[in-house]
Automatic annotation (TrEMBL):
Cofactor (UniProt): FAD
Stated name of the protein: NAD(P)H-quinone dehydrogenase
Keywords, in A-Z order: FAD, Flavoprotein
Domain FAD/NAD(P)-binding: 11-344
Top-level taxonomic group: Bacteria
Stretches assigned to the Pyridine nucleotide-disulphide oxidoreductase dimerisation domain: 365-472
Database matches in NCBIfam families: PRK07845.1
Organism listed in the record: Sinomonas halotolerans
Family statement drawn from the similarity comment of this UniProt entry: Belongs to the class-I pyridine nucleotide-disulfide oxidoreductase family.
C-alpha cells in the first residue's frame, strides 16, 4: 500500500473488540492510522466468546450426531467387518447407540472460542494495534476513559468508534440462575445434557438451540408467542422446519407466551399466558438482547440513543456526536457479525477519507443454523406476493437433486427471485445441508446484479447441491 507522504495519520480509538471493533481496528491500521482498541472481556466480543463461535460449534456436534443417527438409510450398521451380514443387518444405528458428553462438548467449544479470541489478538498486535484491557467510557467526543487493572487511563483520539455489543435480555419473571434457568451465554456451563429442555423464544437463537439440543438427545419443547417458528423469515423455510421438528420429536407450542419461569425441586416450570404449565429439567430463555450502551457516557457526549438504548447511526456509521462512530449490535441495525464488521469498515473508510459505500442492508446474506439450515439474501418472496417488488419466483425442491438423494439430505429447497422484465437476480433462499455455503453464489449474483442466465449458464459440478442453483435459474429464463 502506498501512502501519501503528506498524510497525517489520525489516532482512532475503538471501544469494544467484537466484529465491529476488531474489523475497524484492523482496517484502520492497514490504512496507516494509529489505533487503540479497548476491550473489557476478550477480543472477538460475545460473537466469539459466548455467542456465534460456541453455538455453531455446538451445532456442528449436533449435526454429526443427526447424520450418524440417520446413517441406517445409507446402509451403515453396527459391528465390525467380522460380523455376519445377518448380524449386521439386525443392528441399525439408533439414538440409543449415541451419547453426547456435554462436558467434553462444552470444553471443546469454549476452547475454540478462546483460541479464536487469541488469534484475533495476535493478528491485531501484528498490525500495530495497541490493545488496552479494561472498561471504557466516552469522556467526550474525542476521548475515552478506561479503568484498567493498573488504574485509569485517558485516551485522546481524533475519532472514536463505539462497538460495545449487546447482552441477553432477561424476563422479569424468568431471571437466569445459570443452573436451571439459562440464557444463551450461560448454557455452556452445563456438564450434563438437559433431559427435558424448554426453549422460550422461537426466533433465530431459540430455533437454533432447539434444533441443536434435539440433535444432541434432549427432549425439547419450543415455546413460540407467534403462530410459527422463525417469524419474519421465509415462510416455506419456517413451515418445512416445523415439519422436520415434528418428525424429530421437537414439541412446538405456537401462540403461547411464557409469563414466568420458576425453579422446582428437580427442574423448572414455565407458566403460559393461559395458565398452562410446562415442566422440564432446564429452561433456555431466548427473548432478544439489550445494547451495552448504559452508563458509558454516550448521551453526555452528544450521542443520541433510541428508546431501546441503541446508538443512532447513519449509512456511514456516524452518530450525532462529531467524530464519534458506532458499529455492531449496539446500533440495532441488524444483529449479524458480518453487518457489524461492515459497519466498522465503513466507519474507518469515512474517517480516513477512503472510498465509502454506505451500508446496504438489501444485499446482506444471512443464515439460520438449524438442521437443515436456512440461508437468504436480497428481497423475499413476501416482497413479491405483497406487490412491493415486481418479481418472478422459482422454488426447486431438493428431493429432485441427485447429490441430496445420495446423502439422504433432501429436506430443503432452492428459491431464486428475479426482477420481472429484466431477469436480474434480486433475492434467494437456500434451505438444506450447507445452505450457509451455497448462498454465497446467489449473494454474489444479487450484489453484482447478475442475470438469471448468468447463473444458469455457469457450469456446475454434477452431482452437487449447487447444481440446483443453476437449474432454478434456468427455470427463470425468459424466451425472447
Amino acid at each position: 500500500m502506498t501512502m501519501n507522504p503528506d498524510f497525517a495519520a489520525p489516532h482512532i480509538a475503538v471501544l469494544g473488540g467484537g466484529p465491529g471493533g476488531y474489523e475497524a481496528a484492523a482496517v484502520a491500521a492497514a490504512l496507516g492510522a494509529q489505533v487503540t482498541l479497548v476491550e473489557r472481556a476478550g477480543l472477538g466480543g460475545s460473537a466469539v466468546l459466548t455467542d456465534v463461535v460456541p453455538s455453531k460449534t455446538l451445532i456442528a456436534t449436533s449435526d454429526l450426531m443427526t447424520r450418524v443417527e440417520e446413517a441406517a438409510a445409507l446402509g451403515i450398521r453396527l459391528g465390525g467387518p467380522g460380523a455376519s451380514a445377518q448380524a449386521a443387518s439386525d443392528q441399525p444405528i439408533t439414538r440409543d447407540d449415541l451419547h453426547a458428553d456435554l462436558r467434553v462438548v462444552n470444553e471443546r467449544l469454549l476452547g475454540l472460542a478462546r483460541q479464536q479470541s487469541e488469534d484475533i489478538r495476535a493478528g491485531l498486535a501484528a498490525q500495530g494495534v495497541r490493545i488496552v484491557m479494561g472498561s471504557g467510557r466516552l469522556a467526550d467526543s474525542g476521548a475515552l476513559e478506561v479503568a484498567t487493572a493498573e488504574g485509569t487511563e485517558r485516551i485522546e483520539a481524533d475519532a472514536v468508534i463505539v462497538a460495545v455489543g449487546a447482552h441477553p435480555r432477561a424476563l422479569p419473571t424468568a431471571r437466569p440462575d445459570g443452573e436451571r434457568i439459562l440464557n444463551w451465554a450461560q448454557i455452556y456451563s452445563l456438564e450434563e445434557l438437559p433431559e427435558e429442555l424448554i426453549v422460550v423464544g422461537s426466533g433465530v437463537t431459540g430455533a437454533e438451540f432447539a434444533s441443536a439440543y434435539n440433535g444432541l438427545g434432549s427432549k425439547v419443547t419450543l415455546i413460540s408467542s407467534r403462530d410459527r417458528v422463525l417469524p419474519g423469515s421465509d415462510t416455506d423455510g419456517a413451515e418445512l422446519l416445523e415439519k422436520v421438528f415434528e418428525r424429530r420429536g421437537v414439541r412446538v407450542l405456537s401462540r403461547s407466551r411464557a409469563e414466568a419461569v420458576e425453579r422446582t425441586e428437580g427442574g423448572v416450570v414455565v407458566t403460559l399466558g393461559d395458565g398452562t404449565q410446562v415442566t422440564g429439567s432446564h429452561c433456555l430463555v431466548c427473548v432478544g438482547s439489550i445494547p451495552n450502551t448504559a452508563g458509558i457516557g454516550l448521551e453526555e457526549a452528544g450521542v443520541a440513543l433510541t428508546e431501546s438504548g441503541h446508538v443512532k447511526v447513519d449509512g456511514v456509521s456516524r452518530t450525532t456526536a462529531t467524530n464519534v462512530y458506532a458499529a455492531g449490535d449496539c446500533t440495532g441495525v441488524l444483529a449479524l457479525a458480518s453487518v457489524a464488521a461492515m459497519q466498522g469498515r465503513i466507519a474507518v473508510a469515512h474517517i480516513m477519507g477512503d472510498h465509502v459505500t454506505p451500508l446496504n442492508l438489501g444485499h446482506v446474506a444471512s443464515n439460520i443454523f438449524t438442521s437443515p439450515e436456512i440461508a437468504s439474501v436480497g428481497v423475499s418472496e413476501d416482497d413479491v406476493t405483497s406487490g412491493r417488488i415486481a418479481g418472478d419466483v422459482v422454488t426447486l425442491r431438493l428431493k429432485s437433486n441427485a447429490r441430496a438423494k445420495m446423502r439422504n439430505t433432501t429436506d430443503g429447497f432452492i428459491k431464486i427471485i428475479s426482477r420481472k422484465g429484466s431477469g436480474t437476480v434480486i433475492g434467494a433462499v437456500v434451505m438444506g445441508s450447507n445452505a450457509s455455503e451455497l448462498i454465497f453464489a446467489l449473494a454474489l449474483a444479487v450484489e453484482q446484479k447478475l442475470h438469471v442466465d448468468d447463473v444458469a449458464n455457469t457450469y456446475a459440478v454434477y452431482p452437487s447441491l449447487s447444481g440446483s442453483l443453476a437449474e432454478a435459474a434456468r427455470r427463470l429464463h425468459v424466451h425472447l
